[in-house]
Sequence to fold (423 residues):
Amino acid sequence: MTTRKGRPVVVTGVGVVAPTGLDADSFFSSLLEGKAEQKPIDTFDASGFKASIAGQIRNFEPLTYVKKKKKLKLMGPNITYAVGAAAMAAEQAGLSADAVDGERLGVTLGSRTRISDFAELEKCVLSSLDESGKFDYKRYATEGRSHVYPLSMLRNLPNMAAAHLSIMYKALGPTDSITNGAPSALQAVGESLRTIERGDADMMITGGSDSLVTPLDLCQLTCLGTLMKSKEVGCLPFDENAGGGMAGEGAAIFIIEAKEHAKARGATILAELVGFAEGFEPNFPQAGQGKSKTWQRALQKADCSIKDVGAVALSGSGYKPWDEFELASAASMGNEVPMWSSRAHIGFAGAAISALDLAAAILSARKGVVPVTANCQNPIEQAKAVNLVRDEALKVSSTVRLVTSYNRAGANAALLISGEAVA
Fold:
């Protein structure tokens, strides 16, 4: 395996806020133990939904990371998760607001336009109804709109997480947000990698954050038919009894930088980004070859074969048609490399999910162990053609990991990393 052409780029900080852990180490420990935190939603009454189990974050205190309480008025949960994860990543990397040249520091995150909470709209809507209960636009103009917080839109725009981090760390370099569903964060890391390679920045804050544990998101996912219709089980990846996935939320933020920049700062290098590729597959999910071709391109960027890879992070949505399609792609890579999915632990965390998978991959490479695919007791037929890690965590010697992601429209991405194993 060889390093990518251009400036070598490394990871020096990893921060995680997830349903199974409020920091990177506790998050990864839960993956190794196979403990899937699938519990009923308690932030609102979800009992009316057939799918009321979610990967919900609990006991996260945003004021630990957001120093001024009034700033929370401008932050949705996804933004506070990003701020928390970024703080942990920055501390590990030794990054502070004045530690590096701000003009050589950028931010690119995977994100999503957040759907407004019912709580934000309730008073507005109720005060806009006429005597017959119909929405009256005149009443909205005179009475309803007064109940809308003037800056509420700033909690929901997809660029706001990146904007907050840019301000907090005085990042004056390239700033961007990528909204493309599940691959968003992986594509954000890939774009950050390219930004450093072409010399437009020396260091990037990257990753992704999102939250789908909301009434409107749950309604949308239910209408799509991709949620497990159960009040006891949330997600069964690659399992015969699967009926869909579960909503999730979280954030994983990374500090990445040119290798020579990291060495000059004396930073600890956690992993190197050695191959990135992205693509699109028409007629998804009936096809099945586009995803594996993207994987192959990522390997080729590093002059690497699948035999060099220690493990592959799969999606494993719990929605059988998608899982069957994904495993068909995975089977084309052979049945020797170990593969795992974290969906039973996290759920579908939107734009954050591939960032959380990357965080798990980096820790897997560092510790020399592959996590468990939880809640896969009765694998589907396609799982027999791959080496899916199910029963217990697996020790491996290779420190190379391949992280993959796709969305239901057919977009997909793959990132190859190499890390040094540590005890």
Remarks:
- The chain is about 30% helix and 20% strand.
- The chain has a mean pLDDT of 90.
